[in-house]
Structures are given as structure tokens and as C-alpha cells.
Write a structure and sequence with these properties.
Length: 657
């Protein structure tokens, strides 16, 4: 989209001047001149005219300008790639040649800008209706909604237009968290980089704007996951059809057109397709697993697509190592590989000097992080886990990464706990396998992290057989810990002797996960007074057999929206006081196989939108059934009820008749 492309190109050049100063120093003035010259493009609607198929001089001019800027961007990117592999003498000659060609681009762009036609006539409603009918839907019942949505889209600022398309093309039909979207949009260059400002905060602001406009919404069932809803889902696909830089498909055998810059292949059946050499983004999500041949295909993709900035692969167990070619992608900003058998990253990872996000989760056994990662000066988010969400050992010196905001999945022994204390820029920290030998030092370091918003601590697992045995794994000396003041999300996985008193003073806490705590006392006696708590997950947190009205009383949990209860011991949940849980939207009951009745008073929780029951007793389901169940009056006001009995093999759902 031309208007968007002009500004994004300017942002791209400014970012390169910040991070590639050594290479671009000799042509810095020419690049700044080009940036200033593009200010003359101002704001125009040529991008919308092209999408709608308007034939006009203004649209042709905008298309010509966009094509020229694409050539210039590819030229600059290619020069940076070549410069990294050159000797000092060869680089000096290349810079001289690059400067001449850059001046040529300056002249050609100036000539295009000087031919700018008069301002276009305002868009007509008939044009938008014609676009909707030909690219999205011929259903007259949907047309009015789609036209309204198209008008809303046209009126978006340029960065929000592209943000919506990126959310659509890379989310596909699945949701993602706000944090995941933030990392994506920052890496895609959709946020202007300014010294002293966090791009993540601006990206989050943009996402919340799209949410407020109804263009992104919370997933129907999964709390805290977001997706592009209908009709914006269909609308954005129609816009991508009219554009030539986005492509989203479920066919992994399809030919990628030479104009495509951003490609998403969801539910891929076999392998990774061949791509063009100008590709900037590739997301592949396998339906089940990619074939053995996918590793060779990935090697070809990385070899041919040297301009790649975002690479995302899911369900790739055939991938046992990241190809050497991955270390040559000097423009790569975002690398996410989920469910692979990668055990170690190559030392060539150190060449990815622009990498911002490295997300290697559910990887191979005994996954290790190589020392090469310590050279990734621009790294902002490092997320890792081994099989069964196991810990990953990081090299000593990890505190050298001064831009790191997210560090997740690590083992804090062997001196790492002490290093964490100087990483005061961290906003999210997940530590696994917490044990006696480093717990005190870890707690002391975490208390220094004044910017921390998210913290997850998982105790060292017991040596009993089984993947998740925490019955005898106690948190060591957790009472000595005091959380950072701005903490919003806390996850504790492991057994607690008693409820930490400091939990009751966490005024900024919005999400709390308590897993395998096995408390004898009622945890809500402290938690109900947290003023901003919205999400509470109690997964084997309470080992008692009975919950009564003391658990959820009037005045407690004033903002709680999501409540998750999992307990194999729970037999009775007797009552919820009328007026309690005034904001509850979703209640999830998991593996409560001894529970026979839902509490009296649940019928008064009128805000409840979703009730999920998973692996519960069959008698509980029968009592709640809308087909004559005697307890149905407690849940008939809830719009969506999903259930799975502990014997039945299928998931069921009830909706209002």
C-alpha cells in the first residue's frame, strides 16, 4: 500500500542508520536526503484506490512510486548483506558504488514525486460495494456489514491498516496473545523506532486501538487469546487478494508469486514451498507434522530468501537442527520454531545481528543455547523450553544482552541467578527448576527487577516417575521473597507450605496461576482482596474436599473475569453468595471427577458467558443437561457451555434454545 509504504520505508532507513551505522556511515547524508525527500509524498489515498481497482492517474502514480521504493529497499538490504562478507578494501569500493546508485534512486524518486497528479476525487460508495461483491462476497445479506467494515478500514491510519493485515495473514484461523502480536508487529517494522522509547508499548497501543474498533477480538473460548473476527476476517482476505505483497493459503504446494513479500501457509500438509528471493516474512503451520523433506526445503528457502525478516515454523519434528544458512540472514528480526527436535543452535546464530525475537519452545531433548547468542545485541525477547516444558541452560554472560526484555524457560543455577540481578530492563522472566542451591540468590535478584511485569517460578521436580510430580517438591523459603512492585502476572508451579502473605499486597496483580500448591487452607481468603485480579487459575492449588460460601463472598474478587479450578480431591462446592463474582465471564472446571453438583448461587452470576467442564463426572453433566436435568436452572443463563465427561469420548456443547 503506497502511502503506508512510503512511511514504512522511511522508518526502515532510519532504523538501519541506527543499527548499521558502521557500514552506512559513508552514505549517511544521502540516505537522510532520501528520507527528507519522501516527506514531500505527504498523505494520499492512492493505496485505497489501487485496492479498489480505481483507474486513475493518481493510482498509477502511487503504484509507480511504490514499485520504485521496493526496488530501493531491496537494493539497500542487498548491499548490507554483501558488505558483511567483504574485506575492508572491497567494502570501501562497494560503498562508493552504492553511493552512486543511491543518488540515482534519489533522482528517480524525485522525478516521480514531481509528477504527482492532482488530488483524487473522494471514494464513492459504489466503488466500495463493487469491490466487496467481486473480492469478498456476493451475499446481499452480508454486503452492508462488509461495506461498513471496508469504510472503517479505509479510515484507519496507515500503520493500523498494515497491522490488521499482518494479524490476519499470520494468525490464520488461530488466536494469539497480545504479547505475541506485539513481538510480531515490532519485528515487521510496523512501529517507528525512536531512541529512548519502547516500540513494544506503541505496538500494544495499536493493537488495543484495533480491539476497540472491533477489528480484533478475544477468542470465543480461550481467555487472553485474540483473533480477527468476521467480517474483518473476510474483508482482510479480500484486501490481500487486491494487494500483491500478502499471501495466505492452506496449500503448501502452491507457487509463491514473485511479488509476494509476506507469505503464511497454515494447515500445511507436507512441506515448505519454494519462495521468491524478495520474501520478507514466512509463516508455516503444519496441520500435523511436516515431512522429512521439509528440512531440505527449509535449507533452500533460507538460501534463496536472504532478505527474510520473519520466520515462523510450527510442528516440525523432522527439524533436528537449524540449517547453517539461517546464520546468513542478517536482516532476520524474528525467529520462532515450535515443536521441533532441535537440540542446539549453531554458533552462526551470532551473525543474526538484527534478531529481536528468538522463540524456540518444545524443542529436542537437552536443548542447549550456544554462546553465539551472547552476540545478539538487538535481542529483545528470548523464549525457550525443552520437551514437557523443561528448563534450558543459558551461557554465562547472558546479562550482556542489554536490550533483553523477555527471558523465559531458563535454569538459574550455575551463577545465572546472580546475573539476573543486573538485568533491570527485564519485563518478563520465567525460571524453571528452582532449587535450594540457588533459590535465595534468585529471589534476591528478582526483587531488584523494578520493571518486571511477568514472573513465573517452577520448582525443581521430584524424582518420582511421571512428568508432573510436584507432590513432594516444595518451594524453598518462598516466604523470604518480595515481588517487584509493578508485577502484573505471577505463576507459581510447585508445592507451598502455606499461602505467602506478600500475595495479599500485590495491588497491580491481574493474573495469578497457582499450580500444584496442594494447600490445606483456603487460598481465596487472601486472594479475594486483590483489587485488580482478573484471571485466577487454581490447578491443584487446594487439596481440600469441600468449598463453601467462604471461598467466594460478596465484595471479594471485584474484577475477576476468569476462574479455573482443577482438583481431583474436590467433592463438594456448596454455595456462591448472591452478588459475589460481579465481573466473572468464564468459569472452567477441569478434572474435578468427584464433584457431583455445581454450587447454589451460580445462577445469580449473570455476567457469566462461558462455562467449560473438562473430564468431570458423567452424573454432573446429566444433572446440568438442558434435556430435563434437575440442576439446569443453575446454568441456563450461560450462552455457551462445553463439557467432556471422564468416560465419554467426545466434547459436547450447549447453547440457549
Amino acid at each position: 500500500m503506497a502511502a503506508s509504504f512510503v512511511t514504512l520505508f522511511q522508518w526502515r532507513l532510519n532504523s538501519m542508520l541506527l543499527h548499521e551505522n558502521e557500514i552506512l556511515l559513508g552514505v549517511k547524508d544521502q540516505i537522510k536526503s532520501l528520507i527528507s525527500q519522501l516527506d514531500a509524498a505527504g498523505s494520499f489515498t492512492g493505496d485505497v484506490g489501487m485496492i479498489l481497482g480505481r483507474e486513475s492517474g493518481h493510482g498509477s502514480w502511487a503504484s509507480e512510486l511504490r514499485g520504485m521504493l521496493r526496488q530501493a529497499e531491496d537494493f539497500v538490504d542487498d548491499f548490507v548483506i554483501r558488505a558483511y562478507g567483504q574485506t575492508e578494501k572491497d567494502r570501501k569500493d562497494s560503498i562508493a558504488e552504492f553511493g552512486k546508485e543511491l543518488q540515482n534512486f534519489n533522482s528517480r524518486i524525485s522525478e516521480i514525486l514531481n509528477r504527482r497528479p492532482p488530488v483524487e476525487a473522494p471514494l464513492m460508495l459504489e466503488e466500495i460495494q463493487r469491490f466487496v461483491r467481486s473480492n469478498i462476497s456476493s451475499n446481499e445479506d452480508k454486503e452492508t456489514d462488509l461495506v461498513t467494515c471496508m469504510l472503517n478500514y479505509i479510515n484507519l491510519p496507515y500503520d493500523l491498516k498494515l497491522s490488521l493485515l499482518f494479524c490476519r495473514v499470520f494468525l490464520g484461523r488461530y488466536g494469539q496473545s497480545i504479547d505475541g502480536l506485539v513481538r510480531l508487529l515490532v519485528a515487521a517494522g510496523l512501529v517507528q523506532e525512536k531512541p529512548g522509547e519502547l516500540m513494544e508499548e506503541k505496538a500494544q497501543e495499536n493493537i488495543y486501538k484495533l480491539i476497540s474498533l472491533g477489528m480484533i477480538e478475544e477468542h470465543e473460548v480461550y481467555w487472553d487469546l485474540f483473533e480477527v473476527p468476521s467480517p474483518y476476517f473476510e474483508l482482510s482476505l479480500g484486501v490481500m487478494k487486491a494487494e500483491d505483497i500478502f499471501m495466505s493459503t492452506a496449500n503448501s504446494d502452491i507457487m509463491v508469486p514473485p511479488t509476494a513479500r509476506h507469505v503464511s501457509i497454515y494447515d500445511a500438509d507436507n512441506t515448505i514451498p519454494n519462495t521468491n528471493s524478495f520474501l520478507h516474512s514466512l509463516f508455516v503451520s503444519a496441520n500435523y507434522y511436516l515431512s522429512e523433506a521439509s528440512s531440505d526445503c527449509l535449507r533452500n528457502v533460507l538460501h534463496n530468501s536472504k532478505l527474510l525478516r520473519l520466520l515462523d515454523l510450527k510442528n516440525t519434528p523432522s527439524l533436528k537442527s537449524l540449517p547453517y544458512e539461517g546464520g546468513k540472514l542478517v536482516h532476520l528480526r524474528y525467529l520462532r520454531v515450535w515443536y521441533s527436535n532441535i537440540t542446539k543452535l549453531p554458533e552462526s546464530i551470532s551473525n543474526l545481528r538484527n534478531l529481536q525475537t528468538l522463540d524456540i519452545r518444545w524443542s529436542g531433548h537437552e536443548f542447549e543455547l550456544s554462546n553465539g547468542v551472547l552476540n545478539l545485541a538487538q535481542l529483545r525477547h528470548l523464549k525457550m523450553s525443552g520437551p514437557n516444558s523443561g528448563q534450558v541452560r543459558v551461557p554465562q554472560g547472558i546479562s550482556r544482552l542489554g536490550n533483553l526484555q523477555t527471558l523465559e524457560g531458563i535454569y538459574a543455577g550455575s551463577g545465572i541467578a546472580k546475573e539476573l540481578g543486573v538485568m533491570t530492563q527485564l519485563r518478563s522472566l520465567k525460571v524453571r527448576c528452582v532449587s535450594d542451591d540457588h533459590a535465595d540468590e534468585l529471589y534476591f535478584s528478582v526483587m531488584k527487577l523494578s520493571m518486571l511485569r511477568k514472573l513465573s517460578l517452577t520448582v525443581e521436580r521430584g524424582r518420582e516417575r511421571g512428568s508432573y510430580k510436584y507432590e513432594n517438591s516444595f518451594f524453598p523459603r518462598l516466604e523470604s521473597f518480595s515481588p517487584p512492585p509493578l508485577l502484573q502476572t505471577l505463576k507459581l508451579v510447585g508445592r507451598l507450605i502455606e499461602m505467602p502473605l506478600w500475595l495479599g499486597s500485590m495491588e497491580n496483580l491481574t493474573k495469578l496461576y497457582m499450580c500444584y500448591s496442594h494447600l490445606s487452607e483456603n487460598p481465596t481468603m487472601i486472594l479475594q482482596f486483590l483489587p485488580n485480579l482478573k484471571y485466577l487459575r487454581m490447578d491443584k492449588a487446594y487439596k481440600g474436599r469441600r468449598m463453601d460460601k467462604e471461598f467466594f463472598r460478596v465484595g471479594g474478587f471485584p474484577k475477576l473475569e476468569y476462574l479455573y479450578i482443577c482438583s481431583r480431591n474436590l467433592v463438594e462446592w456448596t454455595e456462591i453468595e448472591e452478588g459475589a463474582l460481579p465481573c466473572l465471564k468464564q468459569l472452567s472446571i477441569r478434572y474435578c471427577m468427584k464433584l457431583m453438583l455445581l454450587p447454589e448461587g451460580l445462577q445469580h452470576v449473570t455476567t457469566l458467558q462461558i462455562l467449560g467442564m473438562w473430564c468431570v463426572h458423567e452424573d454432573l453433566i446429566r444433572r446440568l443437561s438442558p434435556n430435563g436435568g434437575p440442576e439446569n436452572y443453575k446454568i441456563k443463563h450461560i450462552p455457551l457451555v462445553t463439557y467432556l465427561g471422564h468416560i465419554s469420548s467426545g466434547l459436547g456443547r450447549w447453547t440457549p434454545q
